[in-house]
Specification:
- This protein has 373 residues and is α/β, with parallel strands linked by helices.
- It is 43% helix and 13% strand.
- It is built from 14 helices and 12 strands.
- A 7-stranded mixed sheet has the order 2-8-7-6-5-3-4, with helices on both faces. The chain has a 3-stranded antiparallel sheet with strand order 9-12-11. It has a two-stranded parallel sheet with strand order 1-10.
- Helix 3 (41-52) crosses helix 11 and helix 12 packs parallel to helix 14.
- 51% of the residues are buried.
Length: 373
Amino acid sequence: MPKFSDRVERISISGIREVFEAAGDDAINLGLGQPDFPTPAHARQAAVDAIEDGKADAYTENKGMRSLREAIAEKHRTDQGIDLDPANVIATAGGSEALHVAMEAHVSAGDEVVIPDPGFVSYDALAKLAGGEPVPAPLRDDLTIDPAAVEAAITDDTAAFVVNSPGNPTGAVSSEDDVREFARIADEHDVLCISDEVYEYTVFDGEHRSPTEFAETDNVVVVNSASKLFSMTGWRLGWVYGSDERVERMLRVHQYAQACASAPAQYAAEGALRGDRGIVDEMTASFRRRRDLLLEGFDEIGLDCPTPQGAFYAMPRVPEGFVDECLDRGVIVVPGEAFGEHGRGHARISYATDESELREALAVMGEAYEAVQ
């Protein structure tokens, strides 16, 4: 009898984590996908008040507090113009759990899940944990998700495809035309579109649009999170929404895996959603400055990099040995193949760090580039 499930044996520890563990304690970390801003004070205070008032001691509803789900629905009505019923929202333990319950509720053994390549590491792993088969769809040269590549990958065995804009690891933002195509593909092929929108507010060029704005069927499920929107990664509060039937199935998974999201985190997220959004503009302006600083540095080094339009990642094309040379010199960058085979020959760089460290890291990257020429 085997010791472990076939599903868990199909996945491994993230390649990102392996890079972190190979670096020294004093390394400059350009691998961490986390905003370097504090959680808004009013969000923290909302959690403190709830704790001190004894409101956060018990389970909430499985879906999350009604008041939080109302705040989430209001946010999406304002931002996407959709009529979202709070009953069709599930508060989750971060966007990670939201992705997990979406996969588990919709993917059966042997089903195919089309994922962007390169794409966020969880897509491949979560498809496998659900018993599915991830099918990579290569990106365009500018690292945007190509609807034609997605559609070409769809077969009779396809249960879902994943889109992510703004994107991790690329920083790419899908155009409105592409997002309309994602909605059309979901409708016409009767497959689920899982839209990962956790970087929604961090857009420098273009505009964030969601497939749920354009779909004519219920074949879109949206994943979002307070983590990147409001710099709340440690609070672990995300959400997923979709149609009645889809939410009911996802809730079956969520209630047994998680019961409910952390009550203090729910109060904090509601505080962030209902409070002043100034931090959003501040973070976006700061990341734009850092992106421009990074691109200027890449030009000086000689690295080619598609311009990131959002999030806080860049994915330059790098020569063989570049990542190891950076690590040896104390700068953590992640090899592109950690995000899929088509990421090979790239490196993912997170510029969610202060500008002085970015400048220092660019100097090191220049040395690493020269060393492998």
